[in-house]
Each structure stands twice: as structure tokens, then as C-alpha cells.
Amino acid sequence: MKKLSIYITILFFVANISTSLRAQVCYTCPNQGNNVTGSASSAFGTNNTVSGMMSTAIGNNNSITTGASFIAGTYSNIYSSSGNSVIVGGSNTIINGCSESYIFGSGSQVIHTRAMLIGHRLQSGAASQIILGAGRVGGFLTNNKMYSLAIGFNSNVPTFFVGESPANDQTGRVGIGNNTEPQAKLHVKADKAEDATLFLEATGTDKISSVFLGGGQAVIGTTSNNYSLSFVTGSINTRMFINGLDGYVGIGTEKPKSKLHVEGNSFFRDQMVIGTPTLPATLDLFGTMSVSSLQCLKGNRLVAADENGRLLTIEYSEIPGDNLGNHIATQNLSLGEFGLTYNQVNE
User: Fold this and answer.
1) Would you say the C-alpha torsion 198, 201, 202, 208 has a positive or negative sign?
2) Do the Cβ atoms of 201 and 209 come closer than 8 Å?
3) CA–CA separation, 266 vs 269, rounded Å?
4) Backbone angles phi, psi at 74, to 5 degrees
5) How does residue 97 score in pLDDT terms, banded at 50, 70 and 90?
6) How many angstroms from the chain centroid is the CA of residue 320?
7) Eight-state DSSP code of residue 283
8) By the 8 A CB rule, do 145 and 180 touch?
9) Which of 107, 110, 168, 307 has the highest CB neighbour number within 10 Å of its CB?
10) Which H/E stretch holds residue 21?
11) Structure-model confidence comparison of residues 36 and 22, the more confident one
């Protein structure tokens, strides 16, 4: 019975020590206008008010009315039920209910849970987000998406945005411009007063600015010193080349010798027109050409080839010789430099 009384006495003694420690007010700088009423809380500086438990205010004119929070700055506030929050800077506010929130900078506000603001004149627009940068004077840089990162400077809208990942083993999308809903892994959205431009600049001699397309290994690129453009597949096969000096286009060659230079076979599914009625053009043929049908678009003209293989058109009236309608039957008919011959086949 005596031992039991000793144990009970010890328990009451420990409980009293614990209670007194929890109720202890730990702060320095007395007579500086600080008001600390929260248990195990402190204030260093002037005119700070700490009523939340286990909280600390350092600086001047700060107020903490919630537990487990910390301020180092001036004229900043962490309101009730916003526990486990931190402010480092001046004129910041974390309002009621925004627990586990953090501000590093000045002139910012957290109005959602688990938000982190780093910079100046920032304001949370959703829970579980990070905003980095600086808003314009008189406004706030904000972001209205959960589980995201927004970065911007001297603006009320972000320039860079990283969106939420849809699953643990997946990644989010990136938006550049005022774009908090990117439609692809990288979505560039221009402002109304500018073009949407992606600029790649190689500065060394013969260095390449290129866009590499994975999967099929295709490359679109240009070299730094001649501004030519290449379309490459299979990493090394140049399929089309545009010379930056003269504008010549090569298909199957990197050294085009005319406006369009094709190495290899060509197939035209529909009509191919050479020249216009007011701007005639010529087609030089070196070798052979297989044609299923050939039509002159200028009217009653005949398409023929000269002795050099050059295609040309001739008015029917320019063909020398008699009118074919005056002849009934012949075996050889003279057409000037052109001829029509009938060969009888003996059976």
C-alpha cells in the first residue's frame, strides 16, 4: 500500500511538470509591446501578438492566432485554424483554414490549404499548389489549378505552368504563356499581341538547330551559317532540302540545281501544268518520259517533241501540207518535217 502511494505521488508530480511546461510562456524582449498568451509560444521584436500554441513571431507587428506556426517579418498574419504554417517576409497573410501553407516574400496571401508562395504579390487560387515570381503592383500573380506550379514576373498571369500528373507513374503537361490547361506535353500559347514562335538558335559554325521527332527518328533542322533547311528521316537520310541562299528545293538531294530538283522517280497522280496562258514555259526532256495522255490547255494545239527531245505545242494551222480532208486514201502522206506512214502487213 505504501509503494502504491509512492507511485501515485510520482505520477502526479510528472503530470504537474508536464502541465506547467506546456503552459509556459517563452519569449524575450519584454516591454516591447509583445502579447504572448499561447502555451509554449514566443515573440521576439516589437508589437507581436501570439495567441496560438507552440508558435513564434519574430519581427514587428505580426499576429499568430493558430498553433504550430512561425512568422519572421513585419505586419504579417496567420489566422485561426491555419496551423503548421510559415511566413518569412512582410505584409503577408495566411487566412483561416489554410493549414500547412507557406509564404516566402512580401505582399502575398494564401487562401487555400497546402499552398506555397515564393516571391512578391502572389495569391493562391487553389489548394496544393506552388507559385513563384512577382505580380504587378496593385495586383496578384495567381494560379487557379490544384497540384500545379506557376511561374511569372511583373504580371497577374503565369508565363510558365506545370500541370497535375494523372497518376503516380505518369507526368503532367507544361504550358508556356497564359496557359494553365495545356493540351499537349508542351503547349505554347502566345498573347494576343504576338505570334506563337519557337526560336532555336545555333551559334557555332556548322552547328545545327533542329527538332528531333522520336519514334520514327525524323529531324527538321538548319545549320547556323547557311540557313538551309533539311528534312531527315532515319536520322541520316535527307528526304528534302531547301537551300537558304537561292531557295532551290531538292528532293533526294542536298545540292539542288534548279527551283525543283528531284533525284529518282516522280509520280503525279493528277494534272501537271507547265506555264500559264499568259506566261508560257518549256519542258526540257533528257531521256525518256512515259505518258498515258497528254493535253494542251491552250486550245487547238498539238503537243510534239523536237529533235532535242524538247516538248512543244503547235497550232494545227501551222502544220505544213494539204488539208487532210482533200485526200481519200494514200499510203504515204507528207506533213513537212512530220510524217504519217502506213505499212501493209502481208499475211
Assistant:
1) positive
2) yes
3) 10
4) -140, 145
5) confident
6) 68
7) B
8) yes
9) 110
10) helix 2-22
11) 36
